[in-house]
User: Fold these one by one.
Assistant:
Number 1:
Amino acid sequence: MVNMHVKERFSDRLYEGSKDIWEQSHRHPFLAELKAGTLDPERFKYYLMQDYVYLIDYAKMFAFGSIKAGDLEMMGKFSALCDSTLNVEMGLHRQYAEKFGVTREQLESTEPSPTTVAYTKYLLDVAAQGTLAEVTAAVLPCMWSYREIGVLFTQDSAAMEHPLYGEWIRMYGSPEFSELTDWCIGVMDRLAEGLAEPELAKLERHFLIASKLEYMFWDMAYRQEEWPV
Ligand SMILES: Cc1ncc(C[n+]2csc(CCO)c2C)c(N)n1
């Protein structure tokens, strides 16, 4: 018999290492209630406002990816991701904010909560100091975990048609968004090829920390976290 050795992709290793944390996010009351359509709109509004300021820094993260890209295709894709964050994703947040009576100025001047600061500053530190592989490992949980949520939630037609949360669910469950995520996973695998174990472990650490911060972001929104002093 031919020895069929199936090579494990680095992204499989990343996924395995963070699966538990992602599952805990899916079970978190914020997401469970969002899916059931029972989430208090005030909690969602808080999430949108924090997410808006989060996404400003997140878009910068893609801009750093573009700067660090080794070829024009990669450079173009990271700029496309930056554009889609600023215009598609943040565009939906602006629409939602209007429904909640929140102006664009209010959105942009939202004071980041402790958890938002922790997440965005962690990302930007990786962006400033890390390699392109590190930038990719740090941004990947954000895209990939939202794709999982989108795909999971769009299987529930009531959730997808919900008057308040349906649009949010349809965006993250869309094929376009899924393609972007697949592209990012592919980039991670390509960039990890040939790297020595200590480098791979460093990438895995970024992925794990970003996954934990994703969990913390849901929890922060549910609690409507404030600065203690
Ligand atoms: C805390 C937080 N984490 C992840 C996302 C999702 N997200 C951010 S950028 C991007 C890719 C292209 O826009 C995606 C899917 C979010 N909105 N907020």
Note: The chain has a mean pLDDT of 95.
Number 2:
Amino acid sequence: MPHPVPPAWHQADGRPPALLLDGITKTYRSKAGAVDALRGVTYHFQQGSFTAVMGPSGSGKSTLLQCAAGLDKPTTGAVVLNGTPLHGLSEVALTKLRREQMGFVFQAYNLLPSLTVYDNVALPLRLTGRRPQRRDVHQVLQQVGLEDKAGRRPAELSGGQQQRVAIARALITRPAVFFADEPTGALDSKTSRQILDLLRSATDASGQTVVMVTHDPLAAAYADRVVFLSDGVVAGSLDRGTPQQIAAAMSDLER
Ligand SMILES: Nc1ncnc2c1ncn2[C@@H]1O[C@H](COP(=O)(O)OP(=O)(O)OP(=O)(O)O)[C@@H](O)[C@H]1O
């Protein structure tokens, strides 16, 4: 059953937001007790927007990303991707939706060491039962500047090159939404800029939606908007902030 997306959150073109979080909470329970990692997050991510999620350590950023990407389930509340509520889907349908409509880029590149760069990039297509076209694989490798590395294995590449392979692998299915968790966390500043430029062009050139968790104000400044989490709730947001403005907002939160 379609989840009612509040009309106020529809875009000017009448489409639902790329991603809607409606009152999500997440409580982790263990022998040590319960932790309320998210305490009611309501937020919508517009189609074609680039949003950075920032907040102090433990504020719930990774939990939010995991729930938004359907990798974990919120305790209460709804996650709606392009009008499809994730909670209504079977595991099989959720996996299909994730493979077809979501791209993932994490700090650990998660490439398969035994496969070549080409086969790592082609893998998501194979997983969705599609036959990878050489032209498509080479096109995304060219997009990330690694066409000449198609035959290499991940261990033969630098960290930045491996992250670019991970981005190519996420691009190949042309996902509606990219989820990135600290995608530049392990990289030097020049390589980080290349990665952020690639994410930026996913929104600017291809109209994809990017949601990126980061600690780095320089990285967050590539986004259209920064959303600040504090203690499991949205504490505020900043549009088109400079790195200095973003850093100042973060230190206000940490006070
Ligand atoms: N699997 C888990 N079991 C129990 N508690 C958890 C689990 N995962 C996260 N938490 C707790 O939930 C809260 C939010 O964690 P989360 O990792 O989402 O924060 P974060 O903002 O991403 O932090 P960081 O910036 O340090 O990565 C923290 O108190 C954390 O200890």
Note: The first strand starts at residue 19 and ends at 30.
